[in-house]
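Reading a protein record of the kind used here takes only a little practice. These numbers are not coordinates but entries in a learned vocabulary of local backbone shapes. Here is one such record, which you should read through line by line.
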Amino acid sequence: MAKTIPMIITNSNILLFDRESGEFIPFNMPGIEETVNIPFYHHFAEKLGDCQLEFKKFVKAVCGKKLTKNILAIIIPDDTSALESIFINEFFVNSGACKAVAQMTMGQALSKEHQRYISISKSARNITLQYINNNEVRARKLYDVNEYDVNTIMEDAKRLHIDIEYEEVPVFVNNFQMNMDEFFDMGIVVTPKEFMDKIAVIDVEKL
């Protein structure tokens, strides 16, 4: 039977959920240096085989040896591009650490109680607004993390999609990276612990 393993791609590493301990275990690839505005996993391509092998060893150590039964439920940053999403899928599927992967953005994971809502988050590159409807991202707007106006973003959130221009929907502020203080007034703040608690119970069938 397939086993879902929740996994979060953060600004600087990968967090894999260990069901035995109930904690997220970090994976940091040795020799990977930080580059401004470039997600760390881009550097995996420079030594692809080594990175995939190290990740496979890591998953085996955390989750056991039956790797072909694993399905990775990968939570990606909200500003992940379509091309980056493809690379992420290919990297992990071809690592030998799982039989399949499924992806969703951080914003999509913020609430299962609301069919429609706005999410806002901040990565190392961008601030991202998303309109989520029935678990799908229906609209997205990005702002350079080095140049933005808080009031403009707050106003843009009210008209991100035609569905919400004349109807209020809840706003969830993703504070997983502990960097959203100036947006706390926008809506419901999701703390790092609350976020990880939500991810820990994700099942592929629910994605």
Q: What stands out?
A: The helical segments are 48-63, 82-93, 150-157, 192-200. The mean pLDDT is 93. The two ends are 17 Å apart (CA to CA).
